[in-house]
Amino acid sequence: MRITRETLLRIARETTAQRTHSDKSILAVYLTGSLLTDDPLLGGVADIDLVFIHDRQPPARREIVPLTPEVHIDIQHNPRSDYESPRRVRFHPWLGPEMWDPMLLHETGSFFEFVQAGVRDKFNDPLNRLQRSRTDLEHARQIWSGLPAETNEGPARLLAFFKAVSHAANAVAILNGTALAERRFLLQFPARAEAAGRPGLTGLLFRMLGAETVDDGAMTGFLAQWEKAFLSAGSRRGADARLHPSRLGYYRQALQALLDAGQSRSSLWPLLQTWTLSAMALPVAKQGGWQAACKFFALDSEGLPPRLAELDQFMDEVDLLLEDLAGAHGLDAIYRDGRKVP
Protein backbone atom coordinates (compact mmCIF):
# COMPACT_ATOMS: atom_id res chain seq x y z
CA MET A 1 0.00 0.00 0.00
CA ARG A 2 1.30 3.42 -0.91
CA ILE A 3 1.31 5.43 2.29
CA THR A 4 0.29 9.07 2.00
CA ARG A 5 -1.33 11.52 4.37
CA GLU A 6 -4.51 11.39 2.30
CA THR A 7 -4.64 7.58 2.53
CA LEU A 8 -4.19 7.64 6.30
CA LEU A 9 -6.85 10.34 6.74
CA ARG A 10 -9.29 8.27 4.71
CA ILE A 11 -8.62 5.26 6.95
CA ALA A 12 -9.17 7.45 10.02
CA ARG A 13 -12.56 8.61 8.74
CA GLU A 14 -13.64 5.09 7.73
CA THR A 15 -12.60 3.67 11.10
CA THR A 16 -14.51 6.40 12.89
CA ALA A 17 -17.65 5.74 10.87
CA GLN A 18 -17.48 1.99 11.53
CA ARG A 19 -16.85 2.31 15.25
CA THR A 20 -19.45 4.99 15.93
CA HIS A 21 -22.06 2.99 14.03
CA SER A 22 -21.51 -0.08 16.21
CA ASP A 23 -20.69 1.60 19.53
CA LYS A 24 -23.21 4.20 20.68
CA SER A 25 -21.21 4.99 23.80
CA ILE A 26 -18.83 7.10 21.69
CA LEU A 27 -19.59 10.79 22.17
CA ALA A 28 -16.78 12.18 20.04
CA VAL A 29 -13.78 11.13 17.99
CA TYR A 30 -10.88 13.34 17.08
CA LEU A 31 -7.59 12.92 15.27
CA THR A 32 -4.35 14.07 16.84
CA GLY A 33 -0.63 13.49 16.35
CA SER A 34 1.53 13.74 13.25
CA LEU A 35 -1.34 13.47 10.75
CA LEU A 36 -2.30 17.02 11.70
CA THR A 37 0.94 18.19 10.10
CA ASP A 38 1.86 18.46 6.43
CA ASP A 39 4.69 15.95 6.79
CA PRO A 40 3.53 13.12 9.09
CA LEU A 41 5.78 10.39 7.69
CA LEU A 42 9.10 9.46 9.26
CA GLY A 43 10.92 6.63 7.55
CA GLY A 44 7.99 6.45 5.15
CA VAL A 45 5.51 5.44 7.89
CA ALA A 46 3.18 7.01 10.41
CA ASP A 47 0.50 5.77 12.74
CA ILE A 48 -3.08 7.07 12.96
CA ASP A 49 -3.72 8.62 16.38
CA LEU A 50 -7.41 8.66 17.29
CA VAL A 51 -9.05 9.64 20.56
CA PHE A 52 -12.49 8.20 21.38
CA ILE A 53 -14.48 9.89 24.14
CA HIS A 54 -17.00 7.52 25.72
CA ASP A 55 -20.03 8.26 27.89
CA ARG A 56 -18.78 5.57 30.32
CA GLN A 57 -15.53 4.07 31.54
CA PRO A 58 -14.01 2.16 28.58
CA PRO A 59 -12.78 -1.40 29.27
CA ALA A 60 -9.29 -0.51 28.02
CA ARG A 61 -7.57 2.84 27.67
CA ARG A 62 -5.42 2.05 24.66
CA GLU A 63 -5.95 -0.09 21.59
CA ILE A 64 -3.59 -0.90 18.72
CA VAL A 65 -5.31 -1.90 15.47
CA PRO A 66 -2.93 -3.51 12.93
CA LEU A 67 -3.56 -2.69 9.27
CA THR A 68 -0.39 -3.51 7.35
CA PRO A 69 3.20 -4.15 8.45
CA GLU A 70 3.77 -0.40 8.08
CA VAL A 71 0.49 1.09 9.28
CA HIS A 72 -1.55 0.76 12.46
CA ILE A 73 -4.18 2.75 14.31
CA ASP A 74 -3.41 3.89 17.84
CA ILE A 75 -6.69 4.54 19.67
CA GLN A 76 -6.89 6.25 23.04
CA HIS A 77 -10.19 5.50 24.80
CA ASN A 78 -11.11 8.21 27.31
CA PRO A 79 -14.18 8.45 29.54
CA ARG A 80 -16.37 11.53 29.48
CA SER A 81 -15.28 12.26 33.06
CA ASP A 82 -11.83 13.29 31.78
CA TYR A 83 -13.50 16.25 30.08
CA GLU A 84 -16.21 17.23 32.56
CA SER A 85 -14.33 20.39 33.55
CA PRO A 86 -13.09 22.28 30.47
CA ARG A 87 -11.17 24.57 32.82
CA ARG A 88 -9.21 21.64 34.24
CA VAL A 89 -8.55 20.33 30.73
CA ARG A 90 -7.23 23.78 29.79
CA PHE A 91 -4.61 23.50 32.53
CA HIS A 92 -3.63 19.91 31.70
CA PRO A 93 -0.07 19.74 30.23
CA TRP A 94 -0.90 17.43 27.32
CA LEU A 95 -4.68 17.12 27.13
CA GLY A 96 -5.14 20.89 27.03
CA PRO A 97 -2.83 21.49 24.03
CA GLU A 98 -4.25 18.38 22.36
CA MET A 99 -7.80 19.74 22.60
CA TRP A 100 -6.83 23.14 21.23
CA ASP A 101 -7.03 22.22 17.57
CA PRO A 102 -7.46 18.50 16.73
CA MET A 103 -9.38 17.26 13.69
CA LEU A 104 -12.90 16.45 14.82
CA LEU A 105 -14.23 13.34 13.07
CA HIS A 106 -17.41 12.63 15.02
CA GLU A 107 -19.55 14.37 17.61
CA THR A 108 -22.82 13.49 19.35
CA GLY A 109 -24.73 16.60 20.32
CA SER A 110 -22.52 19.54 21.27
CA PHE A 111 -20.33 17.82 23.86
CA PHE A 112 -17.02 18.32 22.07
CA GLU A 113 -17.89 21.85 21.00
CA PHE A 114 -18.70 22.80 24.60
CA VAL A 115 -15.47 21.32 25.99
CA GLN A 116 -13.28 22.82 23.30
CA ALA A 117 -14.80 26.28 23.76
CA GLY A 118 -13.96 26.11 27.46
CA VAL A 119 -10.43 24.92 26.76
CA ARG A 120 -9.78 27.64 24.20
CA ASP A 121 -11.03 30.42 26.48
CA LYS A 122 -7.90 32.35 27.48
CA PHE A 123 -5.85 29.25 26.58
CA ASN A 124 -2.81 31.30 25.57
CA ASP A 125 -2.96 33.76 28.45
CA PRO A 126 0.47 33.81 30.14
CA LEU A 127 -1.01 32.60 33.43
CA ASN A 128 -2.49 29.50 31.79
CA ARG A 129 0.61 28.70 29.75
CA LEU A 130 2.70 29.04 32.88
CA GLN A 131 0.42 26.74 34.85
CA ARG A 132 0.57 23.95 32.25
CA SER A 133 4.35 24.10 32.06
CA ARG A 134 4.77 24.31 35.78
CA THR A 135 2.60 21.23 36.28
CA ASP A 136 4.89 19.26 33.96
CA LEU A 137 8.00 20.53 35.73
CA GLU A 138 6.57 19.60 39.14
CA HIS A 139 5.88 16.06 37.89
CA ALA A 140 9.49 15.81 36.73
CA ARG A 141 10.82 17.07 40.05
CA GLN A 142 8.69 14.63 42.05
CA ILE A 143 9.94 11.66 40.03
CA TRP A 144 13.55 12.85 40.18
CA SER A 145 13.42 13.27 43.96
CA GLY A 146 12.64 9.58 44.42
CA LEU A 147 15.27 8.24 42.04
CA PRO A 148 18.39 8.42 44.28
CA ALA A 149 16.65 6.24 46.88
CA GLU A 150 15.41 3.75 44.29
CA THR A 151 16.99 0.39 45.01
CA ASN A 152 15.98 -1.17 41.69
CA GLU A 153 19.01 -0.90 39.41
CA GLY A 154 17.18 -2.37 36.43
CA PRO A 155 14.91 -1.03 33.69
CA ALA A 156 12.26 0.26 36.13
CA ARG A 157 14.65 2.88 37.46
CA LEU A 158 15.76 3.98 34.00
CA LEU A 159 12.14 4.23 32.83
CA ALA A 160 11.42 6.51 35.79
CA PHE A 161 14.40 8.63 34.77
CA PHE A 162 13.09 8.85 31.20
CA LYS A 163 9.66 9.82 32.50
CA ALA A 164 11.17 12.66 34.52
CA VAL A 165 13.17 13.79 31.47
CA SER A 166 10.01 13.71 29.35
CA HIS A 167 8.05 15.89 31.78
CA ALA A 168 10.94 18.34 32.16
CA ALA A 169 11.49 18.68 28.40
CA ASN A 170 7.78 19.02 27.73
CA ALA A 171 7.54 21.80 30.32
CA VAL A 172 9.51 23.77 27.72
CA ALA A 173 7.89 22.28 24.62
CA ILE A 174 4.28 23.00 25.55
CA LEU A 175 5.00 26.69 25.90
CA ASN A 176 4.82 26.72 22.09
CA GLY A 177 2.87 23.67 20.99
CA THR A 178 1.69 20.22 21.96
CA ALA A 179 3.73 17.64 23.85
CA LEU A 180 6.70 16.20 21.98
CA ALA A 181 6.06 13.18 19.78
CA GLU A 182 7.93 10.02 20.84
CA ARG A 183 9.73 9.35 17.56
CA ARG A 184 10.51 13.05 17.06
CA PHE A 185 11.23 13.89 20.69
CA LEU A 186 14.83 14.99 20.13
CA LEU A 187 14.16 16.26 16.61
CA GLN A 188 11.49 18.68 17.79
CA PHE A 189 12.96 19.86 21.08
CA PRO A 190 15.67 22.20 19.68
CA ALA A 191 13.07 24.37 17.90
CA ARG A 192 10.88 24.49 21.02
CA ALA A 193 13.83 25.47 23.20
CA GLU A 194 14.74 28.17 20.68
CA ALA A 195 11.15 29.47 20.66
CA ALA A 196 11.25 29.64 24.46
CA GLY A 197 14.46 31.66 24.33
CA ARG A 198 16.57 28.90 25.92
CA PRO A 199 18.53 27.20 23.10
CA GLY A 200 21.14 26.04 25.62
CA LEU A 201 18.64 23.56 27.03
CA THR A 202 19.10 21.40 23.93
CA GLY A 203 22.72 20.64 24.80
CA LEU A 204 21.76 19.77 28.37
CA LEU A 205 19.01 17.41 27.19
CA PHE A 206 21.23 15.57 24.75
CA ARG A 207 24.04 15.27 27.27
CA MET A 208 21.90 13.72 30.00
CA LEU A 209 20.79 11.02 27.54
CA GLY A 210 24.35 10.08 26.64
CA ALA A 211 24.38 11.69 23.19
CA GLU A 212 28.07 12.58 23.47
CA THR A 213 28.93 8.88 23.07
CA VAL A 214 26.77 8.35 19.97
CA ASP A 215 28.57 6.59 17.15
CA ASP A 216 26.86 5.75 13.85
CA GLY A 217 28.38 2.30 13.71
CA ALA A 218 27.42 1.49 17.28
CA MET A 219 23.86 2.72 16.75
CA THR A 220 23.48 0.55 13.66
CA GLY A 221 24.80 -2.42 15.62
CA PHE A 222 22.34 -1.81 18.42
CA LEU A 223 19.34 -1.96 16.08
CA ALA A 224 19.40 -5.73 15.62
CA GLN A 225 19.57 -6.33 19.38
CA TRP A 226 16.84 -3.75 19.99
CA GLU A 227 14.55 -5.42 17.43
CA LYS A 228 15.04 -8.84 18.97
CA ALA A 229 14.15 -7.52 22.43
CA PHE A 230 11.16 -5.58 21.06
CA LEU A 231 9.65 -8.64 19.38
CA SER A 232 10.29 -10.90 22.36
CA ALA A 233 8.74 -8.46 24.83
CA GLY A 234 5.82 -7.50 22.59
CA SER A 235 4.75 -11.11 22.21
CA ARG A 236 4.30 -11.58 25.95
CA ARG A 237 0.88 -11.42 27.56
CA GLY A 238 0.15 -8.04 29.13
CA ALA A 239 2.96 -6.25 27.27
CA ASP A 240 2.88 -2.46 27.11
CA ALA A 241 0.78 -1.28 24.14
CA ARG A 242 3.78 0.62 22.81
CA LEU A 243 5.48 -2.75 22.22
CA HIS A 244 2.67 -4.17 20.10
CA PRO A 245 4.27 -6.16 17.24
CA SER A 246 2.45 -3.95 14.74
CA ARG A 247 4.51 -1.00 15.95
CA LEU A 248 7.87 -2.55 15.11
CA GLY A 249 8.03 -1.06 11.60
CA TYR A 250 6.77 2.27 12.93
CA TYR A 251 9.85 2.51 15.14
CA ARG A 252 12.39 0.57 13.07
CA GLN A 253 11.90 2.55 9.88
CA ALA A 254 11.97 5.83 11.80
CA LEU A 255 15.21 4.85 13.55
CA GLN A 256 16.80 3.84 10.25
CA ALA A 257 15.66 7.07 8.60
CA LEU A 258 17.22 9.12 11.39
CA LEU A 259 20.50 7.23 11.06
CA ASP A 260 20.48 7.60 7.27
CA ALA A 261 19.87 11.33 7.60
CA GLY A 262 22.82 11.82 9.92
CA GLN A 263 20.53 12.31 12.91
CA SER A 264 21.98 9.53 15.04
CA ARG A 265 21.69 11.57 18.24
CA SER A 266 18.00 12.17 17.62
CA SER A 267 17.42 8.42 17.38
CA LEU A 268 18.44 7.99 21.02
CA TRP A 269 15.06 8.68 22.55
CA PRO A 270 12.85 6.24 20.62
CA LEU A 271 15.61 3.59 20.75
CA LEU A 272 16.32 3.78 24.48
CA GLN A 273 12.73 4.37 25.56
CA THR A 274 11.31 1.35 23.73
CA TRP A 275 14.33 -0.84 24.50
CA THR A 276 13.96 -0.14 28.21
CA LEU A 277 10.24 -0.88 28.00
CA SER A 278 11.15 -4.18 26.36
CA ALA A 279 13.71 -4.98 29.05
CA MET A 280 11.01 -4.44 31.67
CA ALA A 281 9.04 -7.33 30.18
CA LEU A 282 12.02 -9.69 29.80
CA PRO A 283 13.87 -11.82 32.33
CA VAL A 284 17.32 -10.58 33.37
CA ALA A 285 18.94 -13.34 31.31
CA LYS A 286 17.55 -11.72 28.14
CA GLN A 287 18.52 -8.14 29.02
CA GLY A 288 22.15 -8.43 27.93
CA GLY A 289 21.91 -6.25 24.82
CA TRP A 290 20.00 -3.57 26.69
CA GLN A 291 22.49 -3.63 29.55
CA ALA A 292 25.36 -3.18 27.09
CA ALA A 293 23.61 -0.20 25.51
CA CYS A 294 23.00 1.39 28.92
CA LYS A 295 26.69 1.03 29.76
CA PHE A 296 27.67 2.48 26.37
CA PHE A 297 25.53 5.58 26.97
CA ALA A 298 26.52 5.83 30.67
CA LEU A 299 22.96 5.14 31.77
CA ASP A 300 23.78 2.04 33.81
CA SER A 301 23.89 1.93 37.62
CA GLU A 302 27.33 3.54 37.61
CA GLY A 303 26.60 6.21 35.05
CA LEU A 304 23.09 7.21 36.12
CA PRO A 305 23.95 9.31 39.24
CA PRO A 306 25.77 11.97 37.17
CA ARG A 307 22.80 11.96 34.78
CA LEU A 308 20.50 12.68 37.72
CA ALA A 309 22.67 15.69 38.58
CA GLU A 310 22.38 16.87 34.98
CA LEU A 311 18.61 16.45 35.11
CA ASP A 312 18.58 18.53 38.29
CA GLN A 313 20.49 21.26 36.45
CA PHE A 314 18.11 21.03 33.48
CA MET A 315 15.08 21.42 35.75
CA ASP A 316 16.68 24.37 37.51
CA GLU A 317 17.15 26.05 34.14
CA VAL A 318 13.51 25.39 33.21
CA ASP A 319 12.44 26.78 36.59
CA LEU A 320 14.40 29.97 35.86
CA LEU A 321 12.77 30.17 32.43
CA LEU A 322 9.29 29.96 33.97
CA GLU A 323 10.24 32.52 36.63
CA ASP A 324 11.41 34.91 33.90
CA LEU A 325 8.17 34.41 31.97
CA ALA A 326 6.16 35.02 35.12
CA GLY A 327 8.11 38.19 35.88
CA ALA A 328 7.74 39.48 32.32
CA HIS A 329 3.95 39.29 32.69
CA GLY A 330 3.72 40.51 36.27
CA LEU A 331 2.95 37.03 37.60
CA ASP A 332 6.14 36.49 39.60
CA ALA A 333 4.41 36.57 42.99
CA ILE A 334 2.02 33.80 41.96
CA TYR A 335 4.90 31.70 40.66
CA ARG A 336 7.07 32.15 43.76
CA ASP A 337 4.23 31.42 46.17
CA GLY A 338 3.34 28.24 44.35
CA ARG A 339 -0.35 29.11 44.31
CA LYS A 340 -2.58 27.37 41.80
CA VAL A 341 -4.38 29.35 39.18
CA PRO A 342 -7.61 30.70 40.69
What are the main properties of this structure?
54% helix; alpha+beta; Beta Polymerase, domain 2; 5-stranded mixed sheet; 14 helices; 342 residues; globular; 2 domains
Quick recap of the structure?
By secondary structure, the protein is of the alpha+beta class. It has helices at 5-22, 86-91, 95-100, 111-120, 126-146, 155-173, 185-195, 200-208, 216-234, 248-260, 268-281, 288-296, 304-328, 332-337; strands spanning 26-32, 48-54, 62-66, 72-79, 103-107. Helix 6 packs antiparallel against helix 11 (268-281).
* Overall mean pLDDT: 93
Major sheet, described briefly? 5 strands, mixed
**In whole angstroms, how far apart are the ends?**
52 Å
Strands across the major sheet, in which order?
Answer: 3-4-2-1-5
Rg = 20 Å
Oligomer: single chain
Number of strands: 5
Beta content: 5-15%
Shape verdict = globular
Order of helices and strands: HEEEEHHEHHHHHHHHHHH
Q: Give the count of helical stretches.
A: 14
Segments where pLDDT lies below 50 for 5+ residues?
Answer: none
The overall number of domains is 2
Relative helix content? 40-55%
Indicate the structural class.
alpha+beta
Describe how the helices and strands are arranged:
Blueprint: H1 5-22, E1 26-32, E2 48-54, E3 62-66, E4 72-79, H2 86-91, H3 95-100, E5 103-107, H4 111-120, H5 126-146, H6 155-173, H7 185-195, H8 200-208, H9 216-234, H10 248-260, H11 268-281, H12 288-296, H13 304-328, H14 332-337
Parallel strand pairs: 2-4
Antiparallel strand pairs: 1-2, 1-5, 3-4
